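Q: Two folds, back to back.
A: First:
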Amino acid sequence: MNNDEKYEAVIGSMQEYTYDWKFENYDDPSQPILKITKSSLGSFDWCPKKYDFSYIQRLPQDQTEAMRKGTILHNIREDFFNDFDIKKAENMTSDEVYEYCVQLMPINDYLDMSLTMAAFEAQRFVEARAEDKIEEFLPVCNEGKFDAEIIIRADTNPKHVLTRDYKIHIQGIIDRIFQEESGYIPFEFKTGAWKDAPYKYSSMRKEMAFYKLLIENAEPEVLIKNGLDPNIGVSHWGWYYPASNFVFAEEAKKRTLTSVMKNIAKLIWSYENNHFPTKYFFKTCSHCSYFGICDGAQTDTWV
């Protein structure tokens, strides 16, 4: 890690952590430190008030069809990689590989998407075999849970300077991590539709940069438990949207990691200043679980 980075890993036993964090108690070692996940940081970036409702006040949200769909398909994909037998598939024809992948995708309410995933993985396996890279087909980590503690320096975000440096806890479950040559490639699985717009690339890059931060700052025992070598870093990242038959991978971008660090500092600044304003936008807020209790949304609705 370069000396000019605005964070550093913390080695040693981990402190308790929470979303309901009180910055004024930071010097008391018996009090929990701030917990941040990819989802919580994304929620804050989307709307600070929604973050407040969901993570600090812990107000309930309705279970949506999108949430149910995501849970089912994530479980199917995790089981697929746990059950796929390379030795069984390595001498199959292309058609047989496809049928084998279909067999590993159980019949469910989202059969079309399951078949799309089966076709995608069958093609990927056949291509890996043709390139003599069959060992790269399976992920080195499948639904791995990671924890780390890092220091956020006061000047990380020049627009939101903190009163001090803070140690925070970062945590996440990474869908899959592949390895090619000398680098790891975290890969995110999304069950919604892909929109080929700049904001979608930016949003996904921030998610993947958070995973890079998490992997490269986790303690060695956490990495080893998840099947990773502590001496290998993240070289690329990518994401897969089967609903749109879209897959994308690229070299990891340092500038996106810097952007994520600034967002983390901004989140801490919001705790320091108790400032979680509504970021109202009618096309998205109308679908928010908290629309009916959000003063900002209601005010803008009636203006």
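A: Second:
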Amino acid sequence: MTGAGGDLPPLPGEEDAPGPGGLVRQNSEAGPGAPDYDTPGTATSGPHGQLTAIWTVLGTVYHFDKDEKDQARGVCAQILNIKLKSSADLSYNQARTVLDTLAHWEKQALDRGDNPRAYLLEMLEAAKKAREVTGE
């Protein structure tokens, strides 16, 4: 299966019941007793906890080191356009959005021959400027 970034291998959890475009989203209306994957904190629960995957991608692809946890958390907050005190507050679906976005940006950077971290910073700056223009 093709991952969220195109020709990249699937991210953790993408092999399981892919949705449109290969992206996995857990349905928060799955029925009684089912976890609500839109609930803050669910990124760390279940068999496919996503926080480790986010930190792995930010470390290995985008070269964030242990001293840059605040910046890495800021990347998540900017991608989602939310205030985020702790990455443990992410919902499962928010974490998937971050992972999908990071995979997409990595592919775009590599297709352009750019450094993925430089491309990530460029995308975040463009999003910040767009929010300033729109007043978000």
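Q: And?
A: Residues 58 and 64 are 6 Å apart (CA to CA).
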